[in-house]
Amino acid sequence: MKLILTEQQLTTLLCEEALMESMFHKGMSFSEILSAVKTLGKKGLLTASIIMNIVLMFGLNNAQKMALENVAKVEQAIENKKSCEFNADEGKWEKNPAAWSEVSNDALATVYNAVPSQCNNDVLHTASMFKLNLGDVLSQRVIAMERTFMKELGLKYGDVVYVEGTGKWDGPWQIQDTMNKRFAGMHKIDILVPRNIKTGKWNGVKISIPTSEQFKEHAKSMMAPSA
If we measure between CA atoms, which residue out of 1, 20, 4 comes closest to residue 52? Predict the structure, then answer.
């Protein structure tokens, strides 16, 4: 992490000044400073200019400055491993922008139920033979994708994509099913929802895929296992 603090940065910190005032105060021990720095890092609020201001505010030496930078690097590395996390307080998924690459912005998304009229007689399994938890299908976050669309995007069963443009259904979903052949050639996905939900249709839905194997594995780890 290269730390360069210009005069302009010193005078235009704005929200960083508020963070400094709320997190740091004279008389703090170095261990308390490190703890506060780690907290900022976990929240993704730690910047080079904040670190430099901490150094200036407390008159830290080079060794202490290096310790702050190392904390910043560790927290950033931890954050970079995450593709997405569920924010329970807000009831929605939070996407790490660095983890996903948009591959389509014109998909049609609909919802479907695990019932014979919309699948086949074996409602317990998807086309990939993934076993569903029929009592809580949302916990498994399963979607069906049109076959040629899947091939076009280089995806296969078990891959996780990030869906945006469906309101409360936005977030990561695992591809474990495919669409009926009558939808051949369409950029279409079907979101598996509980049987009491019958309707849902969105145009211009965005589909993103993980940017690295690391993010890909993290995204898969977020999905509930088969029943």
Answer: 4
